[in-house]
Amino acid sequence: MNSKTVACLLLALAAGAAQAGRPCEDKPLSVQQIERGMNLAEATARQLEASGAQVVLLARAGQDLSKHGLLWSHLGFAYRDNNGDATGSQPVWRVLHKLNHCGTPRADLFRQGLGEFFLDRPHRYDAAYARLSPALQSALLPLLRSDVRNSARLLRLHEPRYSMVSYAWGDKYQQSNQWVLETLALAADGASTRAQAQAWLRGKAYQPGLLRLSTATRLGARVSMANVEFDDHPSAQRFAGRIETITADSMFAWLPRAGLGEPAELVKQ
Fold first, then answer.
1. pLDDT tens across 21-79, in order?
2. Residue of 234, 68, 106, 220 lying closest to 167 (CA atoms)
3. Which residue among 120, 143, 157, 211 is buried most deeply as judged by most CB within 10 Å?
4. Could you give phi then psi for residue 264, rounded to 5 degrees?
5. How far, in Å, are 56, 61, 161, 180, 229 from residue 117 at the CA level?
6. Could you tell me where the beta strands, DSSP code E, fall in the chain?
7. What's the whole-model pTM score?
């Protein structure tokens, strides 16, 4: 990717990347960050196109969660948009996902291109995806292509109150991966409430990720971060430092067990 291309991408994408959710840093992206993000986006597009899939779960490593034994921090639905690119000649892949607003306790749904998805200052420039079952892809595709602001069905299970560590089986808050998982349940089983989606997920033996957080860690996060709450977790688990939340790694492990998708694949660069 040459410097002229990078400069054009910076002008075209900087505003969108800054407005689409966290981290809302004033410092502009460097040329190297843009190059690496766009190279990852290009590699992802090639691999997704070659996979023959229409809908996948796509993960990025936005934060370093290795101390919790996790590889991936954030998931979205990536889907093939047959309307093509700006010229109308090439199919493109878009990502529908939930993003927290600049560390506030609110979040919304966003539709982005792969380039924007990987320009959020990731911890690692790596990605992974899991192809969903053909039936689940067919059920999700029209939903994902609908109006992100006005589709009642797309927004049905979206809870704007956000906590980064929201309880996997609660409905007070909802983090990004939780919306993906519950919307998957909506498509698969027709769930019309979060409680119904979670009941279906329990029936399919989904097991949340388990974070072990000390009292000091919980108190520090609660005091310093507006997008972290623990009051939705059962008291006994919370006081024991056992925080059950939805992780990308747990979803990747569960999909093939449940017969709803294939094992995750790394994007090769």
1. 445 566 889 999 999 999 999 999 999 999 999 999 999 999 999 999 999 999 999 99
2. 234
3. 157
4. -65, 145
5. 14, 11, 22, 15, 26
6. 55-61, 74-81, 92-100, 107-113, 124-131, 209-212, 242-245, 265-266
7. 0.89
